[in-house]
Write a structure and sequence with these properties.
The protein is α/β, with parallel strands linked by helices. It folds into two domains: 119 residues, Response regulator (Rossmann fold, 3-Layer(aba) Sandwich); 90 residues, Arc Repressor Mutant, subunit A (Orthogonal Bundle), CATH 1.10.10.10. Helices cover 42% and strands 21% of the residues. It has a five-stranded parallel β-sheet, sandwiched between helices. It is globular and about 50 Å long. The two termini are 22 Å apart. One of its GO terms (biological process) is regulation of DNA-templated transcription. One of its GO terms (cellular component) is protein-DNA complex.
Length: 219
């Protein structure tokens, strides 16, 4: 799952990116509102973490412009400790959730997971796909209760498909959600990851929609 992080406090930015990357998220970072506006409007993010106090363009105006343009990506806003009015403005502008600085990193990670679950219609943090289980809290995967080791990119592919159970996902869409903004998005390598997942998790888990993409059937 791919996240845009728009935050100008560099140390905090690095901490958040490290946290989310450890959970298997692909994190793109920007430190100003101008780039945030462009990236959020043109890239297919699964969610956005948006600091209100960005330079060049403040977060509230960026969020309002996204919503006016029809961008529906879930947004979690970050606000200053005493900025209760900013929280109200952010929610009214279209934010899905907010956190007040300073905050605890585990809570941020939990809120990100909750937003992503709601976005895909999953209420339980553990996604069951037949005998395969994916714990979205830690990226752990098991088959019939037996843990299976997956690479970071294999987990990224499985996680995106699991959050879109019952829907066909193209190779292009998959590549857009598992590679960073300036990464080498080679959609041909998706087939390699799919084959590895089938070998580790069972050949029936992921269905190929010939000439179109892949899907995990709903139960």
């Amino acid at each position: 799952m791919r996240v845009l992080l728009a935050e100008d406090e560099l140390q905090l930015c690095e901490q958040i990116k490290k946290l989310l990357s450890a959970e298997g998220r692909v994190v793109d970072v920007t430190n100003n509102g101008t780039d945030a506006l462009h990236m959020g409007a043109t890239e297919p993010y699964d969610m956005i973490i948006l600091d209100i106090g960005l330079p060049e363009r403040d977060g509230i105006s960026v969020l309002r412009e996204w919503r006016s343009a029809g961008v529906k990506t879930p947004v979690l806003i970050l606000t200053a400790r005493d900025g209760w009015s900013e929280r109200v403005d952010g929610l009214d502008a279209g934010a899905d959730d907010y956190m007040t600085k300073p905050f605890h990193m585990p809570e941020l990670a939990a809120r990100v997971r909750a937003i992503l679950r709601r976005q895909s219609g999953h209420l339980n943090p553990v996604i069951e796909m037949g005998d395969v289980s994916l714990d979205t809290r830690n990226g752990r995967v098991s088959v019939d209760g037996i843990p299976v080791d997956l690479t970071a990119q294999e987990i990224a592919v499985l996680t995106y498909l699991a959050h879109n159970i019952g829907r066909m996902v193209s190779r292009t869409e998959l590549s857009e959600h598992i590679y960073e903004y300036d990464g080498d998005r080679d959609s041909n390598t998706i087939a390699v990851f799919i084959n590895r997942l089938r070998k580790k998790l069972g050949s029936d888990l992921i269905t190929t929609v010939r000439g179109r993409g892949y899907m995990i059937d709903s139960a």
